[in-house]
Amino acid sequence: MVGIDIEQTKRFEKMLKKFDKKTLLRVFSQEELEYCFSKKYPHIHLCGKFCAKEAFFKATNIKTPLNKIQILNNKNGAPHIYIANKIFSADVSISHTDEYAVAVVICKTI
Fold first, then answer.
1. By CB count within 10 A, which of 27, 37, 77, 106 is most buried?
2. CA 86/CA 62 separation, integer angstroms
3. Which pLDDT score is estimated for 110?
């Protein structure tokens, strides 16, 4: 199963100006926020992680809160999907420019 999502990064730049951390935690985990805010342009990385979550939903049709799905990077920077602190068997690819972020999720098993 394959899922893909694309979003405008400006949407997330505006979101950072509008929402507080408590609101962001409804969508992202603490670890995701720490990773993204360690970058020069956190909104671009948040957008990419959000795309990966949406692509995951499209690939699996699993319904779970956004903040319970974590898109975390390994030591080499490759993204992986974690649900309930366990890695989910899927390939994840995230790319972004200044204007857009896109993610593809290919599930190995459901």
1. 27
2. 15
3. 58
